[in-house]
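In the current project phase, our protein records have gained a structure token line. A sample record follows, to show the layout:
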Amino acid sequence: MLDIKLIREATDDVRERLAAKKSDHLLDPLLELDRERRRLQTEVDQLKNQRNTVSKEIGIRKKAGEDISAVQAEMRQLGDRIAEADKTIREIEERFHDHLLRMPNLPHASTPRGTDSADNVVVRQHGEPRAFSFAPKPHWEVGQRLGHFDFERGAKIAGAGFPLFTGAGARLERALINFMLDLHTTRHGYREVSPPILVNAASMTGTGQLPKMKEDMYYIGEDDLYLAPTAEVPVTNIYRDDIIAQPLPVYLTAYTPCFRREAGAAGRETRGLIRVHQFDKIELVKFVEPATSYEELESLLLNAETVLKELGLTYRVLQLCSGDLSFAAAKCYDIELWAPGHNGWLEVSSCSNFEDFQARRANIRYRDANGKTALVHTLNGSGVALARLVVAILENYQQEDGSVILPKALVPYMGGVERLTPAG
């Protein structure tokens, strides 16, 4: 959530930065609500001061034996005016708060200005696409021949977009989860947590999924709970309404299944694992001091990249332009894997700095060097998402005979198995 004081004092700058996110139309209605609530608050404060003054006079006149019935009648009318004004202020406050919650974070100065993904900037590429002596197959053909997943039975159980992993495919998922958690906890300094995957509306609001992205979330109405779209939500909300006691930075990592309707993506890339409604993911979350948050973003990005380097995969890093930034991000890098069977790049991680945007919404604070409470900066990144990671492994390491050679880093997690072979 944006700081209303910043909006008032730097309106032109805020307008320009909101325009870079195609959201400047939200500014003037917010400012009008802010002016109206402040005007009414001034009026009601004056009325309350008047009531307090007259109340003291009534007491004095009553002791003096004067007739105060007319003054009391006026006071009742004044009380009614105050009650009505207070009700109006509450209504405007609710509208103001809801409008403020719908305003996106401002892009950082280093975020390139642009309209959409075509304006994103390639920062670097690691490795080159593999040259095949045969035509590489898409992952769904490779995986089904290996007996790794069954999309038809997954759809029978839950519907399209809910894959069923079987045999070595299920083991590969588990191996990747354990590999990444071990990597981040032993080499990158993250503390592992295992959070709930059902979250309440306050948690979803704190990280920015609500109210804007409600249609993309799975909601359990009778319990007023949501299935977590990413572990970012429960992990960040560990410290909601808290003052973090331990020294910053705090690094947390978690594995969770993730659930997204992706209502706006109907009909896109529906085959295989590229766009699914349930997928596994390792999440990296940081709580840091504001002065260090952009250094922390770069190290977070390197942590996610290490996963792909260890697996020997070709990837590239993009810096997102302002028009392609997520609602809550001030700056974001995407990591994309090369998928030869798909013949394209697939996003496997987003690493974002939210500055104090989430912390203000969720009231997450720390004590600075002077002992004063201040808002932390929050960051998160996928470390990484599994569905598309499995796509990249199957497509990049496939062999002409239908087998798949496993990256060396995964062999210990697969019980020493070095090659996946078609189910006999």
Notes: The longest strand covers residues 278-288. Residues 225 and 279 are 19 Å apart (CA to CA).
